[in-house]
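Following the same procedure, sequence and fold were stored together, as reproduced here:

>
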Amino acid sequence: KNIVSAKLITAIDISDKVKEKIKNYVHSKSKKNVHLEHLIDEEMIGGFVLEFDDHLYDASISHQLNILKKGFKKNLYIKKI
């Protein structure tokens, strides 16, 4: 029926205006009508995760911290003797 399901996960509730902008973004990418499911995950530090079709946008703070953690494990600035 030309409908794409999108799941948005945030740490706090967001306004209807923001939800509408996200629906418009998903519509622009998929060219389909959008059914947006919004979930609140209070354990998420901040940011958001958006899933639709085969796309995953992880803009959460915890994801960014994990990237930093992996980067610090590979310390390129220690000179090996």
